[in-house]
């Protein structure tokens, strides 16, 4: 197989090699199937293979065809309208087995732009790789390496080199490393320490079934499933998204019903706030501004409360490696002192890690809409005094939740002027943010019970308080703070900045995992602001705005981190139907419409005050797009840089997970030895925000 083994057991597809895995999309706007599909070479030509439990038979029966598309770029590569084998019973259902849990589709034409895998012989040992579509890296294919541990006619067991997020990889191929042949179909996965155990269907089961294909190889139309498979349709419609863990699969065998259920999905909400339906635009410019919100809400309301939490400990005085303050000089570390020691800090304090943190917050603040989103700012550090007594105020609210973003900007100025000092009390920073979101006693914010609650947390170090030094109890304290944030329905988006923060990332990983947030490693602090330009917490992947009447896309579209959007749409004289479609990462989407009229001899509408800044931003975006269109290859270069940054972040995530696993093992040992003790958080107090 043309692949190279990388860190943490991840295999990177060789440059130029076509992907082998795709997603399957039902017809008639029925959405995506839940798992992964790959193409297999047979004597009769290439076929598409997937796990049976990845498909809902009721949707399949209603589809005139399945469209197969690349997982991230969504390029269509093939289609199928007929079955070569009926969908088997899911292995986790009564009467099912690993050898039955697959389905084979006849292709309408040979696939394009993909690699068709040859079928391989059974292996009792040897190196393999699992191919799938990564959830966060902008690549159409990723691979994870492993070793065959058990092989029989019924199942194939693989131990991966490291734990990896295989959600959505059910039906993915297991390929032999020596010749790239497909030897199995992924069905279940179970983490085992720092590795992962994968259970797969042997590819021989597919080959055996294809010896007697439906309709002598012509295939059977999907619609036939309505009459022929009523019981299988019921089973498949309740089957979980793959892969399952071994424990979940065992639990599902217990009568009367499967244990693992797929709960109701949250809808994608699109709210067009401007203009009103049937509004009229006039003047010489045949364009309209469309503005509103698009998000996947996690609570009843669609407003958002965000608390930025910044590390101001002494280590943030180090140089970031970027000219943050724009004075033409990049700050560097001070030279060796007369005593032979290196002093802390940066030769240009305006280029410190703290300055980079502040600049990143400003960048993200510019991508929020004060009409919908309140913002607060908190800082944390902490000190241990003599006799093991914690200093007061390890964390402070600099500005309470507000729609007045200029207050936040002034507070950021004060934080920079005050400068870094102290140790790193991570739990105190999280608790401070949670208190503000809930409006608890001592908080300075008025709580909104229905808002989407977000904590954006930055640190360049490891937790060194409330127990001095690298005491494992500090990590436990962070986890407890994360649980308190989770109970407040707050999501934590944690950012580990620099080498030290990524040397022991367990705390930051757990902050994100426990609260259903995201951990982002930023090894180079100079890139922090660029990373924040891509942050989003509305769970919307793409937004499309178009004039359906003209058949024209928006001239410029801006989607904020909080789901606020604006678009400039071209108009024709008379009636125009505008369509706004928002799509979530799992392909769920919602479309809303608004009708507007354009009269060239009419009076130009005056924008509401809250939309003036959005309108100006869209005009700037449009001018930038025009300039880029004049410079050939500019956009491609920008996209390549963005993709490179995303891949680097994913590599850092994998390294961080591996180190966190090692920390977790050590922490378990320390917990067993540890006497019961207070986590030190009770001594925390708050400081009132500075300024008016």
Structural account:
The protein contains 14 helices and 30 strands. Strand 22, helix 9 and strand 23 form a beta-alpha-beta unit. Helix 9 packs parallel to helix 11. The strands form 5 sheets. It has a 6-stranded antiparallel beta barrel with strand order 9-10-11-14-13-12. A 6-stranded antiparallel barrel has the order 3-4-5-8-7-6. The chain folds into 3 domains: 240 residues, Beta Barrel (Thrombin, subunit H); 101 residues, Immunoglobulin-like (Sandwich); 263 residues, Rossmann fold, CATH 3.40.50. By secondary structure, the protein is of the alpha+beta class.
Strand order of the largest sheet: 9-10-11-14-13-12
Determine the structural class based on helices, strands and strand pairing: alpha+beta
CATH C-level category of the largest domain: Alpha Beta
The general outline is globular
How are the SSEs placed, and which strands pair?
Blueprint: E1 3-5, E2 10-13, E3 21-25, E4 37-42, E5 45-50, H1 57-62, E6 66-69, E7 76-83, E8 103-107, E9 127-132, E10 142-151, E11 156-160, E12 173-176, E13 182-192, E14 195-202, H2 203-209, E15 220-221, H3 225-228, H4 230-237, H5 246-252, E16 269-274, E17 279-282, E18 287-295, E19 304-311, H6 353-365, E20 373-380, E21 395-402, H7 405-418, H8 426-438, E22 452-459, H9 473-487, E23 490-497, H10 499-503, H11 506-515, E24 518-522, H12 528-532, E25 542-547, E26 552-553, E27 556-559, E28 564-570, E29 574-583, E30 589-599, H13 609-630, H14 634-673
Parallel strand pairs: 17-30, 19-20, 19-22, 22-23, 23-24
Antiparallel strand pairs: 1-2, 2-10, 3-4, 3-6, 4-5, 5-8, 6-7, 7-8, 7-15, 9-10, 9-12, 10-11, 11-14, 12-13, 13-14, 16-18, 18-28, 20-21, 25-26, 25-29, 27-28, 29-30
